[in-house]
Structures are given as C-alpha cells and as structure tokens.
Amino acid sequence: MAGIAFPLLEETALGGLWLMAIKASAVGFLALYAAQRTRGLRAAPFVVALALSAVGDAAIQLSFVAGGAAFFASHIAAIFFYRRYLRPEPSVARKWATILLLVSVPAVSWLLSGDILIGLYGLGLGGMAMAAWLSLFSQWRVGLGALLFVASDWLIFSRMGPVDLAPLPDLLIWPLYYIGQLLIATGVVQTLRRFRR
Fold first, then answer.
1. 170: number of Cβ within 10 Å
2. pTM for the complete prediction?
C-alpha cells in the first residue's frame, strides 16, 4: 500500500514528514517482512541492507548526499550478504556479464550525471548488482530486481547531466525502484526459507 500510495501522493498537498514516512515505509515494511520470515537464518546483513534503503528513501527528501550515503551503505551490506551465498560454479558467460556490470554501472552513472562522485557511488551500485547475479538466488527475481534498481538510479542521474530523458524519470523512477526491491526481498526470503540457510 505504501509503495502505491507514495507516487500518488507525491504531487499533492501532503508533504513533509508524512510523505517521508510513507516513502520510507514502502521498503521499510519489506525489511520487517524479511526480518520476520528469515528469523533464525543468516539474513541479518540483508535486513540491514533493506533498512538502510528505507533510511535513504527518507533522507534523500532532505539531502541528496545523505540519501546517497545511506544507499551506498545499503549496497555494501547487500554485497556482504550475497558474497555468503555465491553460486558454486557460475558459467563463463555469467562471470563476464557481471564484470561488465561492475564496469558499466559506474561509467554510465558518471556519464549521465557528469559528477565523479556519482560515478564512485556507481561502484557500490554495480557491485551490488554483480554480487546479486553471482549469488545462488534466482536471477529472474533477485538478479532482475538488482537491474531494475540500477535502471531507476540511472534515471535519477539523468536529471543531473546533459542527457534529457524526460518524461521517463518522472514516470519510472519509483516503479522500477520499488518493484526491484520487492523482487529482491521476496526472492531472497523464499530461497533462504527453502534451504533453511
């Protein structure tokens, strides 16, 4: 409900702390869901990653830098988590594709924004996507969710630089981001519960 309510209320008179709370609760409830459904399993870093994303959703309403810092910390926590669950023998094609992700995500982030700090943030974003695709979690849930997260951030960065992608950012940033987080959260939780790890 929060994920649907935020974009509908974003352009209304409702604002300030109420809108921040609604926005943060969308992924915040995914963090609570993951914490509840993985109790007793080794999922604490993943829950922390989701919680930090929720903090980033709220903080970015006040400061782009503070929100970006929270999301960068979220990516580091997610990388740490995915590294615990590496795919035993990833194919050569998967390895090369994930290396391409690690290189292209920060490069495109920098080119779209024209800001070297955004490019450095892209290292964390690309590392998260790479780690998700190298993990044993479903590529069509967790891997796809990570790519949607990347696409959402690229649309944000396009607002800062010379490439005008309007009206795509206004239409797609939130849906891509939230659906990506939803796919990641449910994909990780279902896999962990299936294997009880």
1. 14
2. 0.93
| Residue 30: how many other CB atoms lie within 10 Å | 24
Write the pLDDT tens digit of every residue in 151-182: 999 999 999 988 878 899 989 999 999 999 99
pLDDT of residue 14: 66
Report how far apart, in Å, the C-alpha atoms of 39 and of each of 43, 47, 164, 167, 189 are.
Answer: 8, 10, 45, 42, 10
d(CA 101, CA 95): 10
- Local structure of residue 86 (DSSP, 8 states): B
Residue 131: count other Cβ atoms within 10 Å of its Cβ.
Answer: 24
**Where are the chain's structural domains?**
2-195
71, burial (CB in 10 Å: exposed 0-12, middle 13-18, buried 19+): buried
Residue 51 structure tokens: 């919680």
- Whether residue 169 is preceded by a cis peptide bond, meaning omega within 30 degrees of 0, is no
Q: Which residues of the chain carry a pLDDT beneath 70? A: 12-15, 197
Cα separation, 197 vs 194, whole angstroms: 8
Q: What is the pLDDT of residues 98-118, one digit of tens each?
A: 999 999 999 999 999 999 999
Which two tokens mark 131? 């780690």
Which amino acid, one-letter code, is at 103? V
How far apart are alpha carbons 183 and 145 in whole angstroms?
5
**What tokens does 163 get?**
């490439």
Pair 180, 152: CB distance under 8 Å: yes
